[in-house]
Design brief:
This protein is mainly α. It has eight helices and no strands. The chain has helices spanning 6-24, 32-55, 69-78, 92-116, 122-153, 157-163, 179-197, 203-214. Helix 1 packs antiparallel against helix 2, helix 1 (6-24) runs parallel beside helix 7 (179-197) and helix 4 runs antiparallel to helix 5. The longest helix is centred in the middle third of the chain and has 32 residues, at 122-153.
Length: 216
């Protein structure tokens, strides 16, 4: 049955791409504009996800999976047993990681903007890097949780975030995939990147050309 709508899936993989790209370009002056662009894109994606978490499809809404630390602890305690809790959408433990990651994306992006605006000294840059490192750690825990959940429940959670389908009882799936909204979101991101590419700085485009010129 269809569980994850297309906007949720596109958001997920775009955010993964943006965070990975921002992390890899963090210490490169040549790729500075790419790093900034990916940071702003991440913040905009989270803004969309917060809105979609209020008005989106059944399992996209925060009310369907955010239940607090007690529910998360109860879920974790059930895993070693013979009847581990199974959730159609995000499990309560994964929900805490998701909320933390969303908050950290906004924090890291805001700090990055403050660094670029020269609103503080080196301490602000260190805080930006520290928040990004914390986000990396929570993301690693999230990936570990996905792997463990997939093994225990004998379902591929990664594949579910690609095709949107999970094993559910009849009537528990969602009706509409909302593909047009996902396409619109992807188009908006690509347009933003294109504008950045051809902006007055030109650093991003120039860096791409320099790298391409070195290729055999």
């Amino acid at each position: 049955m269809l569980v994850w709508d297309a906007p949720v899936r596109v958001f997920h993989w775009l955010l993964v791409l943006c965070f990975a790209g921002a992390w890899l370009t963090a210490d490169s002056e040549r790729w500075r504009l790419a790093h900034i662009t990916l940071g702003y894109t991440s913040a905009a994606l989270v803004g969309f996800r917060l809105l979609w978490g209020l008005v989106g499809t059944r399992y996209a809404r925060f009310s369907s999976f955010v239940h607090g630390p007690r529910a998360a602890w109860a879920y974790l305690r059930s895993l070693p047993g013979s009847r581990p809790q199974h959730h159609v959408g995000h499990n309560p433990a994964g929900a805490l990681a998701i909320v933390a990651l969303l908050g950290l994306v906004l924090t890291v992006s805001a700090l990055g903007w403050a660094v670029e605006a020269d609103l503080g000294g080196d301490w602000l840059a260190e805080l930006h890097e520290g928040a990004a490192s914390l986000m990396l750690g929570i993301a690693a825990l999230h990936v570990l949780g996905v792997a463990i959940g997939s093994l225990i429940h004998r379902e591929s959670l990664v594949r579910a975030m690609i095709d949107g389908r999970k094993r559910t009882e009849s009537g528990e799936g969602i009706r509409r995939p909302w593909r047009p909204l996902a396409v619109l979101m992807l188009a908006a991101v690509l347009v933003f990147w294109a504008v950045q590419w051809q902006g007055p700085d030109g650093t991003f485009a120039r860096s791409i050309r320099e790298v391409a010129a070195r290729l055999p």
